[in-house]
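Whiteboard transcription, Tuesday session. T.W. wrote the structure tokens on the left side:
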């Protein structure tokens, strides 16, 4: 992706975060997330709490934070207890930072059935990730469509968008997604700002004139203070708290 294109993607993400502040309910969040990603083929989005135990169909549906998935598919997914067969749910435990469905290792017949039936509802391609610190509960989010066009750069931004949407949904439900009061040092903020622009540890190190180890140390401190586990979540949470712009 050319620099001009990357700037456009980042500007679109910033506009999404600004609009998200005015979302008053799940429908608003869903609409804004699809609006921010539709140019890349995204047609459907969902975010749901991961239950700590097996639930009834009604209880599973009650764990959904926001979505515009076909209700028929959600009902089938819950009724057949596909959560235990879904390859994406298994993979997200290993790769919470996110992955494309096209990269899923699908070895079982049950897993192939879940993905095949999802296609019948227009959920042919997708991206799934997880946010693990929402009041101590894991949240899985997915963005899906029939024909996604997601470059590596765009995939790198999807966790930021997904986690920001989840954080807004949590705020509307009165769930605190992280520590209430956070103070970051000047160097931690500088490293975080560069990370929000998609810079690697090496690039940030050059810009800050420190080693990659030093960058990693600053960003680990940021994640600890914000109560998050990934870089993308740290950026999303910092933007939500207006620690960076």
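and on the right, the sequence the group agreed on:
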């Amino acid at each position: 992706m050319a620099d001009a294109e990357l700037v456009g993607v980042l500007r679109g993400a910033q506009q999404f975060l600004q609009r998200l502040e005015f979302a008053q309910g799940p429908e608003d969040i869903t609409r804004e997330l699809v609006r921010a990603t539709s140019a890349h083929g995204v047609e459907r989005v969902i975010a749901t709490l991961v239950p700590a135990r097996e639930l009834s169909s009604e209880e599973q549906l009650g764990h959904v934070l926001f979505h515009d998935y076909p209700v028929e598919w959600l009902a089938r997914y819950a009724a057949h207890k596909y959560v235990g067969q879904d390859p994406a749910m298994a993979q997200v435990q290993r790769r919470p930072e996110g992955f494309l469905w096209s990269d899923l290792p699908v070895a079982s017949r049950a897993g192939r059935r879940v993905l095949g039936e999802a296609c019948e509802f227009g959920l042919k391609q997708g991206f799934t990730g997880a946010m693990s610190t929402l009041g101590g509960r894991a949240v899985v989010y997915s963005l899906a469509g029939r024909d996604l066009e997601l470059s590596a750069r765009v995939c790198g931004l999807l966790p930021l968008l997904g986690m920001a949407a989840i954080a807004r949904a949590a705020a509307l439900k009165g769930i605190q997604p992280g520590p209430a009061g956070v103070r970051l040092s000047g160097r931690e903020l500088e490293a975080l700002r560069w990370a929000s622009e998609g810079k690697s540890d090496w690039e940030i190190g050059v810009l800050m004139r420190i080693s990659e180890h030093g960058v990693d140390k600053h960003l680990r401190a940021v994640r600890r203070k914000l109560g998050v586990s990934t870089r993308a979540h740290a950026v999303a949470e910092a933007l939500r708290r207006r620690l960076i712009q």
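Someone added at the bottom: The radius of gyration is 18 Å.
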